[in-house]
Amino acid sequence: MKNKFKKKTKKDIYEKGYQTYLRNKKDYEKSNPSKEFPKFTWNKDYPGLESYDLDNLWKDETGLLKWINSLPNELFKKENVDIGKGSISILMTHMPSTRISSSGIKSTGPLKGEFGILAVDLFYRTGKHEFVFSSSNDLSHQPGSPEHLSQNYTIDIMPFGLKTKPVIQFPWYKDINECIKNNNLIYREIDTSQIDNRY
């Protein structure tokens, strides 16, 4: 059987994001002739919102179907899937805050300059309080609004029985010190009203 799995290349992902950007830029500049649309800044080596790798887990569709059919039925029940105990665990951010950028674009997702480092606790997917970190400079912005980050970045996907622990790769780090050392971070002024002094 011919392998029909076709993985999107980094070039494909970058190009699709860039085309979305160009459409939004054209619409924005038509509506705002005196304003300039922010630049597209995706990293060509790490484009898009997903950093997981499922290569070599299944040779072809037959291998994938064999894996699915080998799983117990309870792994497909909604209550197990919802708590990360299903056939797959998806490690993903969820940042549904709506913000208006300096360009006047309203979108659901934080602004790129709202924080320097994003910390994500993987507890609901791994059962352990494990944090991963990424610089907001390294995360790809929304294709249609370069000042906004996305709500959802996929850090890893863990198919049951095939991955026992997450594989963390750029733009994510297991160690905050590595994240700080390897990045040109956005620094923010301390807002003392946001400091929790409780013990």
Description:
The chain is an alpha+beta fold. The protein has one domain. 24% of the residues lie in helices and 17% in strands. The protein has five helices and eight strands, in the order αααββββαββββα. A two-stranded antiparallel ribbon has the order 1-8. A hairpin with a 2-residue loop joins strand 6 and strand 7. The longest helix is centred in the first third of the chain and has 22 residues. The model has no long low-confidence stretch (mean pLDDT 90).
Question: Topology as H/E string?
Answer: HHHEEEEHEEEEH
Tell me the radius of gyration. Answer: 20 Å
* Uncertain residue ranges: none
Number of structural domains: 1
The overall pLDDT average reads: 90
**How many DSSP E strands?**
8
Beta-strand percent range:
15-25%
Keywords:
two-stranded antiparallel sheet; 199 residues; 8 strands; alpha+beta; globular; 24% helix; two-stranded antiparallel ribbon; 5 helices
In a nutshell, what does this entry contain?
With 199 residues, the protein is an alpha+beta fold. 24% of the residues lie in helices and 17% in strands.
Sequence-ordered SSE layout with sheet pairings:
Layout (H helix, E strand, L loop, with lengths): L9 H22 L29 H10 L7 H5 L5 E5 L5 E3 L5 E3 L8 E5 L1 H4 L4 E5 L5 E2 L2 E5 L4 E6 L16 H6 L18
